[in-house]
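ugh ok fine here u go
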Amino acid sequence: MNAERITVIFPGTDDEGNTLQEKASLFTGSPDVILSDYPGMVYVRIVKSGSRQADGTYALEDYNAVELPGKVTPAEVSNLSFLDYVRYHAVK
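structure:
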């Protein structure tokens, strides 16, 4: 399972009325999984509702999320099962 770098569009807007968006890694499947890197953590979003748009962005509507401490690359994630990924962070 390989990741693709995409721009995720979130529902709603910020205080200035701008679209909420960020760069992330998309693992397509059933369901799609979106991996976002933040300082000191990785945020995993399991998509409940959302889709790829004609412009190549991903419109995310609803998701479940898991926050994991540390940093791991999408390439490392693609070689691990989700349980292996959780274990990877638990022993770091």
